[in-house]
Amino acid sequence: MSLRLGDIAPNFKAQTTEGEIDFYEYLGSSWGVLYSHPADFTPVCTTELGRTAALKAEFDKRNVKVIALSVDPLPSHKEWVKDIEETQHVSLNFPIIADENRKIAEMYDMIHPNATEKVTVRTVFVLDPDKKSA
Questions:
Q1: Tell me, what's the pLDDT at 21?
Q2: Quick one: which of 40, 41, 64 has its CA closest to 52?
Q3: CB count in 10 Å sphere of residue 54
C-alpha cells in the first residue's frame, strides 16, 4: 500500500528511543513528519537527524512533531543517538522507531522492491493534524 496525498496515515505502536509510542497519540493535534533512513550510523543519515534536532524550535513554532524510523534494532539506535549528539553537537529531541520486523516500513511502503529487503529507502511523510498525508 502506498500512502498518497489525502490518505489517512495508518496508526501503529512501536518501540522507540523514547520508549513505546502509539503514533497517533504521539502526534496528538500536531502536524507530523515521519521519515525513514536506510541504516544507523550512515554519515548522511547522521547529519540529517542532527540537523532536524537543531531545528526543533522552528518545528515547535509550526506545531510539528518529528519522528524517524529505520529497521535497525533499538540498542543500535541508542548508540547512534550518542553518535549523533557527539558529532552534530545537538541533543536528539525526537524519537527514532526501531522497526526490526519491518512492519511499519512495509505498512508505509518504505521498502523498494529492487533494493535490499533489510533497508528502508529514504522516505518522508508530512501529516496534517487529522493524520492525513499532506
A1: 98
A2: 64
A3: 14
Residues 36, 69 contacting (CB under 8 angstroms)? yes
Answer whether residue 25 shows pLDDT above 90. yes
Phi and psi, residue 47, nearest 5°: -70, -35
Residue 27 belongs to a domain: yes
Q: Tell me the catalytic residues.
A: 45
pLDDT tops 80 at residue 122: no
Is the pTM value of this prediction over 0.85?
yes
What single-letter amino acid sits at 82?
A: K
35 and 3 Cβ atoms separated by less than 8 Å:
no
The answer to the question of residue 88 being in a domain is yes
Three cell numbers at 36?
A: 525513514
Residue ranges making up the domain that contains 116: 13-127
Q: Could you tell me if residue 4 is inside a domain?
A: no
The phi, psi pair for 80, rounded to 5°, reads -65, -40
45 occurs within a structural domain: yes
Q: What is the pLDDT of residues 76-104, one digit of tens each?
A: 999 999 999 999 999 999 999 999 998 99
The number of folded domains in the chain is 1
